[in-house]
Structure formats: structure tokens, C-alpha cells
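User: Sequence for SAVED domain-containing protein below. C-alpha cells please.
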Amino acid sequence: MSGRTVRLGEIAHIVGQSTHERSPRGADPLEETLRDEADNLMLVCAQEHTEIDAKATQDIFTVTWLHDLKQEHEDRIRHVTGLGPSRATTVVRMMGPVHGKAVELSRQTAASAVTARHRFPLFLESYSRHGVEIDLQRTPGEEDTTSGNALSAAAASRSYYRQAVQVIDEVIRHQLRPGVERGSVQHVSVFGFARLPLLVYLGSRLDDTVPTDVYQRHRPEQSWVWPAETGPATEFTVRVVGGDLVDDEAVVIMNVSGAIIPHEVPAELAALRRYEISPANAATRPDILRQRASLRHLEDTLRDFLARLETEAKTLRRLHVLPAIPMSAALVLGRVHHPQVHPQLVIYERLAGSYVSTLEVGQTTS
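Assistant: C-alpha cells for SAVED domain-containing protein:
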């Protein structure tokens, strides 16, 4: 109200300054000579000071409770201030419904996951203090992609994706790319919950020259924090399972979190050469990417596979991708794909019981 900067914090004692009965928590056995030491002091606002010292709250704001609160806060500040500038990361969040459902992916949720990786989130003023946020929840039409037969669902998906792609492009063009060009974005942390084709597309729009961490939502914990890595990480393999390379198109089946059986492959793709990417030392399962190292192994496998195509299949123009993969894997697939070097990706979805093409990533080459 005055327009002036004034100090509103107050020094509060955990154990009261004296042993008098009116001194909050003063009956504690702490020596009086130690009661004005930093370990027994907290900086609080006036209203909090009044509340924690009130007689009616003494059973809540105990010496142990206040000490724990002080320790937790100091540990957090010590952690954050101990991170050097090289540990900063720009947070990119994309949130969209999947079959009408969404999950919580707030700024704080992303920040907690990032700090667990010993980085601190960079929320620049130019990014409205929320990092780079791609909100697809208001994009109409997603609910129409689950109704009707496969053809009508595919048509609805393409309409929805055209609008969603415009939202993604707008945010990348006006927020993330300028930050990269200015040098203010030197590391990126990506969180995505949306339909798989859109996650592949987002991955393709991220600058592959900027170091990037991709995060996965873990269902058991309902958390985006990567669990501690225990046991061997999952590795992946690529094998040819049918068809000769006689044309400029091929099929890629990604059996990672689930399995796509042969008769589910659309009939128009049956004669094409087929590549299958699957775990080398584990069975497919929804939580197969529990470890961050497993996602890195999948990324390495995809990079090696695309590099192999550059030398062994130079005539390929289009790869029809049938993905049974976690969302983080979809982001990685988009990131490793180079639109000027690699074949166009045609991403399929299972809609109304059939796999249909819904989104193309990258440009075809003549």
C-alpha cells in the first residue's frame, strides 16, 4: 500500500526464549543459553508467528514438528542453491486428453521431477513463469476419435491432429525456438501426456542439438519422478520379420509396452518389408521403461536403426509405424527422426479395433 519495501519477516523461537509458562514451548529442556542460537530460530511472517505461538495450537506446533519443518526447508534451499548454472533446464510440458482422460501435470509436478534429477527448472518471465506449456486440452475433437468405425475414427483423428499440430507449432515457433536461438535454452526437460502421434510430432519439433531429458509418468506411483535404478536396464533389438525391400515403403512394428500380432497389420501393408523393435532381455509390459537407462537404450536402438536404413535402404521414402509404446518412447522416436535425412514416418493408431494411419511426421522425398 505504501509502495515501499519493508521487512515483514519476524524472528520466531522454536523453543521459547525463556522458561516462563507464557513462553511458547518454553518448558522444553533446551538450555536457555542456546535458545537464541540459529538452530532454534525461524523466519516467519507475523500471522504465522502468532499462529504457531498461540496456546490453542501448541499440540500441533510442537518442538519436533517445527524442527522438522525448518530442517526440510533448509535442505531444499541448500540443494537448490548448490546447483550451478549448468544444471538449469527449460521445462516443456504438453498436456492433452487421451480417450477423454487427462492426468495432473502442473508446473510444481514437473519441477519436483526435475530437481530429483539434480537440475533446477528454468521458468523464464518470457514464458509466463510456466516454462513452455503446450495445452491441448481445449483443442476440440479428441472425443470424436473414439466413436464409430475405424474409418470415421481415423477421419476424426486427422481433423483433431491438424488443429493440435498448429498449437504445437505455435508454441515451438514463438517460445522455445527463440530461447534456443538466444542461447537462454541450453537444456530441455520434456513432459508429455497426449495421443502417441502428437508426442512423436512434438519430439520431431524439438531441436536435437540441445541436450534433452524425457520424462515418463509411472503409473504405480502416479509420479513423473524417475525411480531409483535397480537391476539391469531393458535393452532392445531390431529384426526383419517378413517381406522383401522391393519398394520405397516399409513397416516398423514397435512391440515395447505391448504386442501387435501379425494379423493386426493392415492388409495394404502386408507385402512390405517389416521391421520389429522389441525388448531383447525382457517381456513387453506397460511399465517396461521404469528405468531411465531403459529409455536411453531404446533411443540408441532407434538411432542405430535409422542410421542402418540410410546405408541399407536408400530408396525408402515412407515408414509405416505401428507403435505399442509408452509416451516417453513416442517423444524419443520423434527426436531421433531427422525429416531431411530419414524416411517420412506414418504413425498408426488402433481405433475401433483396427490400426489406421493418422499422422505423418516429416516430409516425403522424391
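The CA atoms of residues 52 and 251 lie 65 Å apart.
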